[in-house]
Design a protein that fits this description.
Elements lengths: L3 H8 L16 E4 L7 E5 L4 E3 L2 E4 L4 E5 L6 E9 L5 E7 L11 E5 L30 E8 L2 E6 L2 E8 L7 E6 L4 E10 L1
Length: about 190
């Protein structure tokens, strides 16, 4: 299957000065695959950068983006090993303390002992049933936060739809490396 981005990129290959696809339609690239400028490491994940991918396979922690967001759409591609714990945290108020108690954790954790808040769930806010399994494949995460409504999609399939929660209306964004092999690429955001 040819992905839309692959088709567009192939069609633009001959244009040397073509802008990055992420910059279209108001999208801002947070991770361009070349550097970690704008990101702060929290915890002790052994983060490495190679071939357009940021990854860790040991340690536990986050990469936190420098800016806060209120209403936005975020999309990223994630790859996890079968035993890995990851996800994206949003709207947490303290840059040094990403957590699901003060913000929201959009979870990707196939091996979670209690799958109620495993892959596809928003931890402690929106359960998932049945829990999708994504380990071993690149997966597109789409997160929308608009006012008190939260939506989560994995590979185009909605796992949490316009869930209402008013815990926090604005905050930071982080990529979680909670154990096991976790990779991210193509992380981008668009304010609403």
């Amino acid at each position: 299957m040819i992905h839309r981005r692959t088709f567009i990129a192939t069609g633009l290959a001959g244009l040397a000065a073509a802008p990055a696809l992420a910059q279209t339609a108001g999208w801002t690239t947070l991770f361009d695959g070349k550097s970690l400028d704008g990101w702060t490491k929290v915890g002790d994940p052994n983060v490495t950068l190679a071939d357009g991918i940021v990854q860790a396979d040991k340690g536990n922690g986050h990469l936190v983006w420098k800016d806060q967001y209120a209403d936005f759409e975020l999309r990223a591609e994630i790859y996890i090993a079968a035993d890995a714990n990851s996800g994206i945290f949003v709207r947490f108020p303290e840059k040094e303390k990403p957590n699901s108690k003060t913000g929201y954790e959009f979870n990707v954790f196939d091996a979670r002992p209690d799958p109620t808040y495993g892959t596809g769930a928003i931890v402690d806010v929106a359960k998932v049933d049945p829990m999708p399994k994504v380990a071993g494949n690149w997966t597109v995460m789409e997160i929308t936060c608009k006012g008190s409504e939260l939506t989560f999609k994995l590979n185009g399939k909605t796992t949490a739809d316009k869930v209402k929660d008013t815990k926090n209306a604005k905050g930071y964004v982080s990529l979680q490396f909670g154990g096991g092999l976790v990779r991210f690429r193509k992380v981008e955001i668009r304010a609403l």
